[in-house]
Specification:
Elements lengths: L6 H7 L20 E3 L29 H4 L5 H17 L4 E3 L22 H17 L3 E7 L12 E3 L2 H8 L1 H10 L3 E4 L3 E2 L2 E2 L4 H11 L5 E4 L7 H7 L11 H9 L5 H18 L36 H15 L1 E5 L12 E6 L24 H8 L4 E6 L10 H12 L3 E7 L18 H11 L4 E7 L14 E4 L7 H9 L13 E2 L17 E3 L8 H6 L4 E3 L10 E10 L5 E9 L5 E11 L6 E11 L4 E8 L1 H4 L1 E3 L4 E3 L3 E10 L2 E10 L14 H6 L3 H13 L6 H8 L15 H15 L1
């Protein structure tokens, strides 16, 4: 049908019809509605003046964002969230969800980190693929974003992310590659930024040579909203759909007429958009459901109790709320639990002071395009009251204002309440304004008034349980005087109930960190480079991102990648590594619950390499739930790609012969089991030429003997000065012609020719 359309009609299909719709060609191509929705469907309310729908949108389930979901380390749970998102999308007339975001958490200062899964590409790829699979299993398309190297908000529409090839391949591309190859997403969204000087929206290597030709992507490449700077160059590079429309369709027609753009390129892009619309546009008559009374809580994030408006039709609102609570419970990370102060006993005779405005006014999602109007909103304070037994006395004190304005009266009342309690549960966190699309953070500290309150409360001598709410890392200033620390991150609309259940032991925390918590901002690997200047940000830390940096240089951290406690303990034993051929192994270990409560453990597989590679890298994980005394056998697969690193000279993945270590443990710094293995490598031998060093020549299986034979007459069996040998090893072969070794330029050229013939 697209081939039968005029060039102008084809061009019109490559830009949107509005902010959230693609173009309809009557009788040929239906319109497709898209929506933000990494953790909830943000469908603008048609009766609102807010065209973007950021502050006012049709109510939908606000699931915990990726920062929280990622901490579950549970791909099946992510798949279920994706399936639920698809149900709501269909009910609201949405055919394409703009998510998930799988960018790497390069710096804790990135204002949009709450939308991303991890500092590790393997983890982000596995969770992202599961979420995409869940979404698309429900007949709704997923759009993976932001492609690529979009790791900051500062100057995001112009900045050039200057990344070396090895770092790009090993850190910033693998999550996208895994999702494209395994989950086959309907769309990929290009990012705003430049990559090594070229806008992502018109980067042919990125959008065509890599994404389509190498990875096999066959969906639609859509721009981030406003990311197109040159419409013709973008389409020629592989961008199919510009959003929102800029009224520049005529530029494509003119470019074809003038021979600057092929008509086939326009037809191809239009065909991809048409195929997407035909596959995911709602059935005739489907419309966004918004029955009377379906407005969400006014001023999302400001409800002080359980607000339960009627939900839109088309899905089980209660069931999806329960799923959101399950995610929050599975993802909260118990960082510290001295003397087993948690869980609190709801039936005990005790005085518990619940402190902090965030216990009453929850912080449950980030700001910007992912902001969702929830169908309901649970706060922790009323949930704690519901769960507490008759013998437990609960008191509440706000302690601080959410706008950061110091309030001595509120703080004093909280300190007094803490002093008179057996346990103080203190809710602290970052305010809404601190974490939002479009703005990076400038510090990882908690607000000053909250830190002051923390010090005063811990100074009372009462045991303190700290409950943290944030979409990114916060510095551990003042944490060490607390008895327990529970990081809820951004727990979604059901987070208040979930946190209360964890505190009272109805459920046990089961989350693990997906981002290292440093002792201070200056310890972070990108500290000297983020966010750049003069239109460039240099990724100077290379592939040493997150734990790859901290563990390699043995830098002290507050809490390592993968860390998390529960209400029981686990033992690892019986590591078995079985080769299956062709650089493949099966790894198995037993994990046993050695405590007295049911709990979840996340067994993590790392591979450790020598040389100039990172200390170790995550290559697998499995989450298991075990009753007291129960054990399970966890299994992993290792393949050639797990052993490989990107070779810039070769332009491909390379497995180098040598030894490596299989590590299985509970975090990147809690390795319980190890096994030493060797690989023969993939047999690749790097070519040598006249400017290759003597060391490289001597290591070459053909060039080494030839060079040795060529030098033998000049040496005549005499040993050389070791200092001269050391100097010579670093010299390119061509430079040996300067020394009295009998290697003339002609002989050197002959050596090169003989090696080339032998290795062709």
């Amino acid at each position: 049908m697209v081939r039968e359309l005029s060039l102008a009609e084809q061009a019109s299909l490559t830009s949107g019809a509005g902010m959230w719709e693609t173009v309809e060609v009557p009788g040929a191509v239906p319109a497709l509605t898209v929506s933000d929705g990494p953790h909830g469907i943000r469908r603008p309310d048609p009766d609102s003046d807010d065209a973007l729908g950021i502050s006012q949108s049709i109510p939908a389930t606000c699931f915990p964002p990726a920062v929280t979901l990622g901490c579950s380390w549970d791909p099946e749970l992510a798949r279920r969230v994706g399936a639920a998102l698809a149900v709501e999308a269909r009910a609201l007339g949405v055919g394409l969800i703009l998510g998930p975001g799988v960018n790497i958490k390069r710096s804790p200062l990135c204002g949009r980190n709450f939308e991303y899964f991890a500092e590790d590409p393997y983890h982000a790829g596995v969770l992202g693929a599961a979420l995409v699979t869940g979404i698309q299993s429900g007949g709704v398309g997923a759009c993976v974003k932001h492609f690529a190297a979009n790791n900051q908000e500062t100057d995001r529409l112009r900045v050039s992310a200057d990344v070396d090839e090895q770092t790009l391949r090993e850190i910033y591309l693998p999550a996208f590659e895994r999702i494209v190859r395994e989950a086959r997403p309907a769309a990929v969204m290009c990012s705003y930024n430049k990559l090594n000087g070229t806008y992502a929206s018109q980067h042919r290597w990125l959008l065509t040579e890599l994404l389509r030709d190498e990875w096999g992507f066959d969906g639609v490449v859509v721009s981030d909203w406003g990311a197109v700077n040159d419409r013709v160059a973008a389409l020629a590079a592989g961008l199919d759909l510009e959003m929102p429309p800029t009224g520049t369709d005529r530029q494509l027609v003119d470019a074809v007429d003038q021979g600057r753009l092929s008509a086939a390129a326009v037809a191809t892009a239009a065909g991809r958009v048409a195929a997407l619309a035909h596959r995911y546009a709602p059935a005739a008559g489907a419309a966004a459901a918004n029955p009377a009374g379906a407005a969400g809580p006014a001023g999302a994030g400001t409800a002080k109790a359980d607000a339960v408006p009627a939900g839109p039709s088309g899905w089980d609102v209660d069931a999806h709320h329960a799923l959101a609570a399950e995610v929050a419970r599975a993802s909260a990370v118990l960082l510290r639990n001295e003397d087993a102060v948690l869980p609190l006993d709801p039936a005990a005779a005790q005085r518990i002071a619940v402190l902090g405005e965030l216990a009453r006014t929850p912080r449950y999602q980030g700001g910007g395009s992912s902001h969702v109007t929830p169908t309901r909103l649970d706060a922790a304070w009323p949930a704690l009251r519901r769960l507490a037994g008759e013998r437990t006395e609960l008191t509440f004190a706000a302690g601080y204002r959410l706008d950061g304005t110091a309030d001595a009266e509120l703080a004093a009342a909280a300190v007094t309440a803490a002093a008179g309690a057996d346990v103080a549960v203190l809710f602290l966190g970052l305010p809404d304004a601190a974490e939002s699309e479009g703005v990076d953070r400038t510090t990882i500290d908690l607000p000053a008034d909250q830190l002051d309150l923390l010090r005063r409360v811990t100074g009372t001598g009462t045991r303190v349980v700290l409950v943290l709410a944030s979409g990114g890392v916060v510095a551990p200033d003042g944490w060490w005087d607390t008895s327990a620390i529970l990081a809820g991150f951004l727990p979604g609309q059901a987070g208040g109930t979930a946190l209360a259940e964890l505190l009272f032991g109805v459920h046990a925390p089961a989350g693990r960190l997906t981002e290292t918590i440093p002792l201070r901002l200056a310890d972070t690997p990108s500290y000297l480079h983020f966010p750049g200047r003069d239109g460039h940000v240099r990724y100077g830390e290379g592939r040493y991102v997150g734990y790859r940096w901290y563990d390699t240089v043995e830098r002290d951290v507050a809490f390592p990648f993968g860390h998390g406690l529960g209400y029981t303990t686990f033992e690892y034993r019986d590591l078995e590594v079985r080769p299956t051929g062709d650089d493949r192994w099966q790894v198995a270990a037993t994990v046993a619950n050695t405590g007295d409560r049911f709990g979840h453990e996340v067994a993590q597989l790392y591979l450790a390499f020598g040389g100039d590679r990172p200390r170790h890298e995550l290559r697998g994980f499995t989450k298991v739930g075990l009753a007291p005394g129960e054990s399970a056998r966890v299994r992993f697969e290792i393949g050639p790609r797990d052993l490989a690193e990107w070779s810039v000279p070769r332009g491909d993945w390379q497995v180098t012969a040598g030894g490596f270590t299989v590590e299985v443990g509970a975090s990147s710094r809690d390795i319980r089991l190890r096994a030493e293995l060797t690989t023969p490598g993939d047999g690749y031998v790097a070519p040598v030429g006249r400017m290759s060093t003597v060391t490289e020549w001597l290591a070459h299986p053909v060039g080494g003997p030839l060079l040795g034979a060529a030098l033998a007459p000049a040496l005549d069996g005499q040993p050389l000065d070791p200092a001269l040998v050391a100097l010579a090893r670093s010299l390119p072969l061509a430079k040996l012609a300067m020394f009295p070794l009998g290697l003339t330029p002609e002989k050197i050229a002959d050596l090169v020719s003989r090696v080339e013939r032998a290795t062709d």
